[in-house]
Request: fold
Amino acid sequence: MMNLKKWNGLLTAFILLVSLIVTSLFPSVTFAAYLPKNSEKSNGASNMALIYTGYYNPDDYDGMKIGDYDKERFLPYVG
Reply:
């Protein structure tokens, strides 16, 4: 029984070591990157807001219609 626990511990340590090596060699390319104010990439724009529109299932958001913007709901972003 002790031998099984020893092998289980070694296997767990090996898996953790391999996952650490893989994640350090292949970093994720999905990260949040924000453009600096007046950047050339944004053509000099500043104070931008990314507003998602479209259909979102209201059942997943406590009955709220997430992607629907009327004048009152959109005004804080532009006013």
Notes: Residues 15 and 36 are 39 Å apart (CA to CA).
